[in-house]
Design a protein that fits this description.
Layout (H helix, E strand, L loop, with lengths): L2 H33 L2 H22 L2 H14 L3 H36 L6 H7 L2 H17 L3 H28 L4 H37 L11 H19 L1 H21 L1 H19 L2 H10 L2 H10 L2 H28 L1 H8 L6 H9 L1 H16 L3 H26 L1 H26 L9 H24 L6 H26 L5 H4 L4 H7 L8 H5 L2
GO cellular component, one term: plasma membrane
Membrane topology: Multi-pass membrane protein
Protein name: Membrane protein
Length: 541
């Protein structure tokens, strides 16, 4: 298999693993929401967000940095240096795992009390042991990726999610039937992440043993090369990875801020009980639904990042301009119909998946803001691909400051909705700063004169979806409510997506000429529909 084919296959594997992980994550939240009360929802959400924040801090950026360092040394026929780098990374992963896990366990009561949900202490402590292994797993994944073995990484992610999701649900269900309260049930569900870490570690350990045997058979042995100093290795790793870590943690930082501030900010307005209920709705319902749109859009757009990196390295300004435009346009155009469908059908989606449709407005507003999350993440990835991670890091910090300030200010006037709007503002600020920097490197337009057609397609398809959703809700008096919600979801999803795509083509937002440069899945979907484009629109291309 050629290097190009191997890279494409690896990208597909990792994208599929991310998609499976997202679907399983939603699958987990749905049954848990049915099992928990408001306190259980809030406790589990808070523990999960704290854990994901620390996990991102401990692992994001380091695997890709380690991958680069390992692959470079193997390309230069220095396998012993690659192994030294790997061993140093494993030592750091083991030490970091112990420190972070112990710190989280010890600090759990203090954080839970400060965040206004002391019942989450057990859940946070139950999830802490998962951090023992994940830094080491991240190093193993980085080394595996550097050796071009992405299959192991993808399988380990899927096994991790399956083990985490099913043990979380089973433990919560078992504890419920044993008569335990919601704080203990939430702790049981949180402990599922520990089983996930064990499953992922087992897969990566098997892959490492298999790789070692393969090296032995291929005659790749340790040599007598000079030992690399540990401090030098760590300096190389951290100088490259720290900006990437800070640039990658925006979403988890935002969710962590919400988990920490919602109850303290809102208790004085609505009371502690209601504030805890709102935290549970945001964490269990809104954040899980809002996590759906970015997956496909970001996977498709970031598949173009290697091409952008290569064009930037060659100083090919024309090609760079086309590829940045394409990446941003693909991200927006593919993310919009999913965002739109979930926003206009928020009530039906909420009623179908969860125990009650309460909090549908929160789901709709948070999901609406994910279009800016998509543009932020895509533009961040482009900047990282161009080696601009340090500047991107400061933009992320600026966005986080805006999130904190806007949450405090807007919550006084708009309650929970002000906090959700603050999240969108954070994404908008980072996107604007990223685009300003990109345009200073190479001038480009995302849509140009096509914004009018795009907005018209959004308004028309959104209005049609809203009307269908209202009609489906009215059916709840004539049939079981969940059946009516299911009908509404299916109808809205089909009509919004089809109408949106047809309008993009008819209005000339999509052209046949540029379709050839789109990712293959998008081309296969849109090619048959291009016949609907009027001749006068084609002539304007």
């Amino acid at each position: 298999m050629s290097k190009k084919d191997s890279f494409i296959k690896g990208t597909i594997i990792l994208a599929a693993a991310a998609l499976v992980a997202r679907v399983l994550g939603i699958f987990q939240r749905v049954p848990l929401e049915h099992l928990f009360n408001d306190v259980g929802d809030a406790a589990f959400s808070q523990a999960n967000n704290v854990y994901l924040m620390l996990l991102t801090l401990a692992t994001a950026g380091i695997p890709s940095t380690l991958s680069k360092m390992v692959s470079e040394r193997y390309a230069l026929n220095r396998p012993d240096e690659a192994r030294q780098v790997y061993r140093a990374a494993l030592i750091f992963g083991a030490v970091a795992g112990v420190i972070i896990s112990a710190a989280l366990y010890i600090a759990a009561p203090l954080f839970a009390k400060h965040a206004g949900v002391p019942e989450s202490t057990l859940a946070i402590r139950a999830i802490a042991p998962a951090l023992l292994l994940f830094p080491t797993i991240a190093m193993m994944r980085g080394y595996s990726q550097g050796r071009n073995n992405m299959m192991a990484n993808g399988i380990s992610q899927i096994v991790e999610q399956i083990a985490r999701v099913f043990t979380a649900i089973l433990l919560a269900f078992f504890l419920l039937h044993q008569g335990y309260g919601n704080p203990v049930m939430a702790a049981g569900a949180s402990f599922g992440s520990v089983f996930g870490s064990v499953g992922a570690f087992a897969i990566m350990l098997y892959a490492a043993i298999k790789m070692k045997r393969s090296d032995k058979q291929s005659g790749i042995h340790a040599s007598s090369e000079a030992k690399l100093p540990l401090l030098g290795i760590y300096k190389d790793i951290f100088s490259l990875s720290i900006p990437i870590i800070l640039s990658s943690m925006t979403i988890q930082a935002v969710y962590f801020i919400d988990s920490s501030l919602i109850v303290p900010l809102l208790s004085g307005q609505v009371g502690g009980t209601e504030a805890t209920r709102l935290l549970g709705i945001l964490g269990q319902k809104a954040q899980s639904i809002a996590g759906i749109p970015p997956v496909l859009a970001i996977a498709l757009s970031t598949s173009l990042i290697p091409v952008i990196s290569a064009a930037y390295a060659r100083r090919d300004e024309d090609h760079l301009k086309r590829q940045i435009t394409l990446a941003m346009r693909v991200a927006i155009l593919t993310g919009t119909p999913i965002v739109l469908s979930l926003v206009v059908a928020a009530y039906s989606v909420n009623g179908l998946l969860f125990s009650t449709p309460s909090g549908s407005g929160m789901i709709a507003l948070l999901t609406l803001g994910t279009i800016f999350q998509i543009t932020m993440t895509t533009s961040n990835s482009i900047l990282l691909g161009m080696g601009k991670s340090r500047i991107s890091m400061f933009y992320v910090l600026a966005g986080i400051i805006v999130k904190l300030a806007a949450s405090v200010l807007l919550s006084r006037f708009m309650g929970i909705y002000g906090i959700i709007i603050a999240t969108a503002l954070c994404f908008i600020v980072i996107t604007a700063l990223n685009l300003r920097l990109l345009r200073s490197i190479v001038p480009f337009e995302i849509m140009g004169k096509r914004w009018r057609g795009y907005l018209l397609a959004v308004l028309v398809s959104g209005a049609a979806g809203y009307g269908l959703n209202a009609a489906a809700i009215s059916l709840t008096g004539m049939m079981p409510a969940r059946l009516a919600y299911l009908v509404g979801c299916l109808a809205v999803g089909a009509v919004v997506v089809i109408l949106y795509l047809v309008l993009l083509i008819v209005l000339g937002v999509l052209s046949a000429g540029e379709l050839a440069s789109y990712p293959r899945p998008v081309r296969k979907l849109l090619s048959p529909l291009m016949k609907l484009q009027p001749a006068r629109v084609r002539e304007r291309e």
